[in-house]
Amino acid sequence: MNRARITTLALPILVVLGSVVVLLILAGTNPWDPIRIIVEGSIGWPPFEGGSARKVGDTFMVWVPIALASAGLIVTFNAGMWNIGIEGQIIMGAIAAALVAREVSAPRPLLILLAILAGAAGGMLWGLLVGVLRTAGGVNEIFGGLGLDFVALSITTYLIIGPWARSGVASTSGTNPFPDNALLPSLGGSKLSPLAVAIAVLALLGVWTLFRGTLYGLKLKAVGRNRSSAFLMGIPTNRYLLGAFAICGALAGIAGTSQALGLHFKLIPAISGNFGFLAILVVLLARFQPIWVAPISFFFAMVAVGGPGLSLRLGLHGSLGGVLQGVLVLSAMLGLGWAAYLTRRRAMTESGVSSG
Amino acid sequence: MSLELREIHKHFGPVRANDGITLTVETGTLHGLLGENGAGKSTLMKVLSGFHSADSGEIVLDGKQIKLASPHDAIAAGIGMLHQDPLVFLPFSVIDNFVLGSPGAWRLDRRAAEIELNELCERYGFNFDAHTPVRLLTVGERQQLEIVRLLWLGARVLILDEPTTGISADQRSKLFATLKALAAEGMSVIFVSHKLEEVADLCQRVTVMTRGKVVGEAELPTPPERLVEMMFGQVIEIQDRSDVGLGVSHLELDSIQTASGLLSEEPISLDVKSGEVIGIAGMEGSGQDTFLRLCCGMRAPMKGTVAITGDDLTGKHYREFLNANVKYLPAGRLEEGLIEGLTITEHFVLTGQDTSFIIDWGAARKRAKELIDDYGIKGTENSTAESLSGGNQQRLLLAMLSEDLKVLLMEHPTRGLDIESADWVWEQLLARRQEGTAIVFASADLDELLRYSDRILVFFSGRIIGELDAAATNVDEIGLLIGGRSLGAEAAASS
Amino acid sequence: MSGFFTAFLEMFDTATISSIVAGASALMFATMGETISEKAGVINLSVDGSMMLAALAGFVIAFETDVVWLGFPAAAAVGMAVALLIAFSNIKLGLNQIAVGFVLFALSTELSRFLGNSYVGRPPVGVPAWDIPGLSSIPFFGPVLFDHNLVVYLSYLTVIATYLLMYRTRKGLEMQGIGERPEAAHARGIPVNKLRYFYTALGGALIGIGGAAFSLDVKLGWSDRPTRNLGWIVLAIVIFGGWHPLRAAIGVLLFGALQAFAINLIPEFPSLSQVLPSIPFPAMILALVVVNWKALLKWLDRYPFLRAILRSDPPTAIGTAFEVD
C-alpha cells in the first residue's frame, strides 16, 4: 500500500474521532455515550433488536428523502452543476403533493399515485426554472437556486398561515393533517412506507445505471466535464443541462412528497428538513458514487433521527450530529486532497530525478 | 548588458523542454532565437524571466551569476519579457496596467505615472489614452504598452516571445523600428520567433533551437538555406502531390458576410471539391477561426449561403452540419475536442454510430481496442484523454471521425507534435482525401501549407487577401501576403 | 393599495433611515470582507456559516470577559480561520472553492448551534451608544449617521477604507490583479498565492467582525441560528455590487430598506405578518438574478449609461487555483 492511500483512509477517520472526542470531553461527557444514544435512538440498542422495529422504520423514512435528493444531485453534479436549489425543489414537491392530498378525492392508490406524480412535477418545475435561468439567462445556478429556495420557503409559510391555515388559529406549526386516504401506506406501528423505500432504492439503482451503462448518462458526463467539446461532438448541451435539472428536481420533488405524506402528514414550514443541503454533503462524501450514497445516507439519517435524543439524555444539543457530519465530509475532502497533493509532488520529483 | 545562459535544463513531466541550453547575448544586439513551435524557445525565455525556475543551469549577467527564483528577481536584475499573449489585465485601464507591479509608495499616484507614460510614449512614437480599458486596445498596442512598461521598470534585457503573432504589418514595422532603436541605445534584445524571414529581417545574430537543444548559431545576414538546414536538418523539397481527381463540390460558400468585426464586410466565396485540400494561412486572429466556424455552422452568416454537397444549410444548426458529415477540429485538443476524465472507449461511444440507449460496453471496448491498434494510439482503452500525449490526442481525435466524412475543417493539425506524429497525421488526412473528403486546414507552418494544400487562402485582418495555387507559389510570396503586403494581389483578393 | 403607500411613506422617516443605517453594520463588514476575498480570486462560500460561528465567538468572549470589545478580535479570528481553510484547500490542495466553502458553511452553522446552545437566552452584552459630539446635532444627517455607536462608525470607515485600498493604492491594484489574471500578476513579480492567503484571511476577518457586530450590536444576545441566511445575502450583494465596495454598500442599505419596508407593511397586512419579514431574501436574490440575466444585459448594451450602472463583471480568475509550472 502506498502511503498516500493510507493517509487518505486514516486521516478523515482519525480527525472525526479525535474532534468528536475532544468536543465531548469539553462538554463534560463520556465520548461513548452520544454514539450509543444516536444508535439507540435511530435503530435501537442493541441494533435492530426487539422493539426497535418502529425506530428503524422511522429512520428509513428519513433515509428516503436524503437518498432521493442525493440520487438527484449525482445527476446535476455529473452535469457540472451546483444545484443549491435542491431545497426549494423538495419544498415545491411537498407543496404539490399537499395540494393533491388536500384537494383531490379519489381511491387511495390513485390518489397516492397522483400525489407522487404531482410532487415529482412540482420539484421538476422548480429544477427546470434554475436550469432555464442558467441556460437562457446566464444566471449562475448557485444563486438562481438559492433565490428559488427562498421563494419556495416563503410560499410554504404563506400557505400555512394563509389559505391552508389550520382551522381555528393560524400558526406556523403547520396545516391540518392530510386526510388518511392520502397518506403513504405504512407498515403497522412505524411510519415505514415500503413504497417510498422502494422508490428511493429504484432511484439509486436508476442513477447508477444511468451513469454506468447508458448513452444519456455518458453524454451528461461529457457535458459536465467539457461543454465545448461535448457541443462539438454534437451533443445538445443546453437540453442535457435542463434534463439534469429536471431529473434532479423530480427526484427531489418525490423526496418532498415522502416528507409531507410519509413523515409529517401535514405541511410544515421546515418541510424539507434541510435534507437537500444534507444530501449535498452526502454526495460530496460519496464522491458522486450511487453505491456509496445508500449507506452514507443511512448513517446521516441515523444521526438526524438519533441526534435529538442527545439533548434529552445528555443535555447536549442535537446539532452535535450535524457537526459530526460536517467534520466527516470536510476531513474526507481534505484527506483526499492531501493525498492527491502528495502524489502530484512525488510525480514531479521522480521525473526530476530521472531526467535531471 | 551581456547575458549568458549555461547548461539550462528544464523539464515538464517526461518532456525535456530545455536540454542543456547554452547561449550568449552581447550588449546592444538584437539576438534572434529561432525554432519550430515546441522547440523549447518559450520555455527557455520563461526561465530567463523567472516565470519558470530551471531544474539546473546558470544565468550570468554582466559577468555576475544571478539567481532567478521568480519574475520579481528577473525584473530587479533588469530582465523584462513580453509574452506571446501580452500578459495585461484586459478590464483595467492603460495607466493601471502600466503601474501594476511597479515598486513605490502605498498611495497610487496615477497622475505622476501618466506623465512618465506619456514621456516614454512620445519617445518611441506610441500613443495611448491612459484611461482606456486595455480590452479596447489591439494586440499590437498592448505590446507597445508592455514594452514601455518594461523600459520604465528599468529593463536592460528585453525578451520578446513571438511578438508578431496577431499584429498588423504596420504595427510590425513600427515594432521592428523600436527594437532597432532600443538596441542602438545599448539594450540587449532577444527576439523569439519561428518565422525565419522576420529573424533575418531584424537580428544581428541568431541561435537555432530544435527539440530542446541548440542546433546552431550564425551571424546575420546568412543565406536562408543555412538556417532552414539548421531548423529542419535538411532543406525540404516540396514533394510531388499525388493527383487526386476532384469530385463534386462538398463545401460551397456563396458571398457570405458576417457581422462586422469578425470578418471584414467583403463577401467571401469559395468552392471546395471532393478530394481537395485547402490551406489557410495568416497571422493568428486574422479571421481564420471565424471563417472555419462559418463553414461548420457554429456561426451563421449575415448574408450569403453555405451549402454542403449541394444542400443549402445556411443558418442551420451546427448539428445539421455534423449530420451532413462536416467535422470541425479546433486547435485546442483538450479544450475543444476531447473530454478530460473520460476514457478512450467512452470517447468512441460518444462519437460512434451506435445510438442505442444502453451501452454495450463489451462491444465498445472491443471496438476501442481495434481503433487504438489501427491508429497507433499509445494508451489502453481505459486511458483518459488527458493522460495521452499531444500526438496521441490528435490520433484519438482522428480516430473519432466518422467514416464517410464530406468536409473536414482543422486548425493547426500538427501543432506541438513531433515529426513522426506530424507525418502520421498527414498520412491519415491524405488517405481521407483519397476517399473523397474535402479538407480545409489553417496552419501557421508555411511548409505544411505548401506541402499539402492544393490551394492556399491567405487571410489578412478579416479578409482573404490572396488565393494561391500551392504548386505555383513559394514561402516568400505567402509570407508577404500574410504580412498584408499584396503582390498585385488585389485582384486575387476579390476573385 | 393605500396601505402599501403609507408603508412606503414611512420609509422616509428619519428614525427609520437611522435604524436602517444602524442595522446595516453587520452586513457592511461581511460584504466588504467577501468583496475583498473574491476580488483576489477566492470565493468564500461559507459566509452564512462562518459569520454565525464568529457571531457566537464574539458573544461568548464578550459575555465571559464582560469586555464587549474583546468579542471583536475573537470573531475576526474565527472568520479568518475558516477563510484560511478555504484558501489552503484551494491553493495548496487544488480543491474546489465552492465545495469546501459549502461544507464549511454547513459545519460552522452546526458548530455554532452546538457550542452556542448553553448561551441561548443569556443576558446580552452590547456596544455602548456614542453619538459623535457636534456631528450628531446636524439636522437629519446627525441622527441618521452620527447618533449610533463605534461599531456603526467603523462600518462606514471599513467601506471607505476598502474603497481606498482597492482603487487608490498600489496594493489594492495588485489585489485586483491577482484575481483578474494571476499569471500576469506573477509575471510582474507579485507573489500571487501569498497575497491570496492574505486577502482571503483579511476578508474572513471582516466577515467575522460582521458576525460580532450582529450579536453585539444589531441584535443583541444569542439565539439558535441568529444570522440565518444573512450570509447568502452577503454573497448576493457582492455580485449585485459588481465587486465594487461602494456599490455593494448601497446594496446593503437597499436590503436594509427592503427589510424595514416589509416590517412597515405588517400593520397593513396583519395576515401576512409571518411571511413579510422573509420576503427581502428572495427579493434580493431575484434582483441579482435579473441583474445577471444575459438577455437583459444584451438589451442594456444599447444604453451605455444604464449598462455602466448595472454592469457586474466578476474578476476573471475568480474561483480558480493558480499554480506556477
Topology:
The complex is a heterotrimer of chains A (356), B (495) and C (325).
Chain A: H1 3-26, H2 32-43, H3 53-78, H4 86-103, H5 108-135, H6 141-161, H7 194-213, H8 215-225, H9 227-232, H10 237-264, H11 275-285, H12 290-306, H13 308-314, H14 320-355
Chain B: E1 3-12, E2 15-25, E3 30-34, H1 41-48, E4 56-61, E5 64-66, H2 71-76, E6 79-82, H3 94-99, H4 110-124, H5 139-152, E7 157-161, H6 169-184, E8 188-193, H7 196-202, E9 205-210, E10 213-219, H8 224-232, E11 249-257, E12 268-273, E13 277-282, H9 288-295, E14 303-308, E15 311-312, H10 318-323, E16 326-329, H11 344-351, H12 361-374, H13 390-399, E17 407-411, H14 419-434, E18 438-442, H15 446-452, E19 455-460, E20 463-469, H16 475-482, H17 490-494
Parallel strand pairs in B: 3-8, 3-9, 6-7, 7-8, 13-18, 13-19, 16-17, 17-18
Antiparallel strand pairs in B: 1-2, 1-4, 4-5, 9-10, 11-12, 11-14, 14-15, 19-20
Helix pairs in contact in B: 4-5, 11-12, 13-14
Chain C: H1 2-10, H2 14-23, H3 25-39, H4 47-65, H5 71-91, H6 97-116, H7 141-145, H8 150-168, H9 170-180, H10 182-187, H11 192-218, H12 230-240, H13 245-265, H14 280-292, H15 294-300, H16 304-310
Helix pairs in contact in C: 1-13, 2-13, 3-8, 3-11, 3-12, 3-13, 4-5, 4-6, 4-11, 4-12, 5-6, 5-11, 8-9, 12-13, 12-14
